[in-house]
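Support request, please re-run this one:
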Amino acid sequence: MTATEIPTSPPSFKELLWAYSNRHRRLGVSAVGLVVIEILWFAFVGYEFRDVQPAGFLGYAPLTQCTGTGCATVFKAPPPIIGPVTDLLIYALPAIWALFFVAPSLARELESKSVRFSWTQAATRKQWLAVRIASGLLAALAVVVIEVFLVRRWVFPHNYTSDPWHWFLFTGVLAPAFALLLVSVAILSSLLWKKPVATLLTTAILFGVVALAITSTYPNLLSPNTVVSRPGSPLSLPQGSLVVDASSVTKNGVKLSSTYANQVLSICSQQAMGRFNGVQANRAGGTAGVSSPSTFNPSTYTSCLESHDLYSLISYQPPFRFWELQWIYAGATLGATAAIVALSFMLINRIDI
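Re-run finished. Output below.
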């Protein structure tokens, strides 16, 4: 080929992707930066929660403190900032890439009309769009997959004892699928509005709408299992189950009002507390007893509840349903992502810049 010859073959997809990466290095640096931040933070959280035993929402590390010849067990709470920051990162990371990098970058290209230069070169509109979709989706996938791995490895074993149900949207296979959906929405919004602010707002609103829809529907998407517990007896559910609902019913399963149930519980508690292991509380000429936890009579309490026909109906999702629901929502989310990407390719040839 002489110096005056111009190549006529269009560049390949890999060449376009490499050229785009070189021109927009800040996007790659941003993705790497997010990964570094999440690795450092979750490693720090894992270090702070070392030897922590789950105790409610926050765990506490048992330490032995000795003074002279005596030793006692004390509890040291992790730094209070860990909980809020970890919550923020778990919620925000699936959306950060779409909201603050993909959406403004693509919309700014369209708003400034710099895409005209790209489209007048060997690259077609669809090639231009394919490069931006691929880079956005791959970066989002990498960021969120690493986040899910780090959280499940360093945070959930020590803290957040309601895992995995409490963080259903941001753990498992649904988290990467949800991130891909947000990126595809950011791209489609960029093509429609061609304005960074409008694109960002559209993506942010959809993030909230989809997140709310999933978290409010997954407990009852599949029919939960039910169990009727005996009054006053501890309820045993499979470990890792999600309690969907609890209501008061009769032995035959007829639902009772909360007012009636509260009245019965109050009456039965008073009766159970009034019996002091066979000692009469207000005996003539004696001192009235003072109620305490040790004076509570469980058999009296249970008998009273049974006499009022008060039982508990518990609805729950067994632990194996977690992954079943994860794949259902992930499949639906990926299907929506594919539809939005296809719509974007249809729209790219029709927009006017």
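The longest helix spans residues 82-112. The beta strands are 61-67, 70-76, 225-229, 242-249, 311-317.
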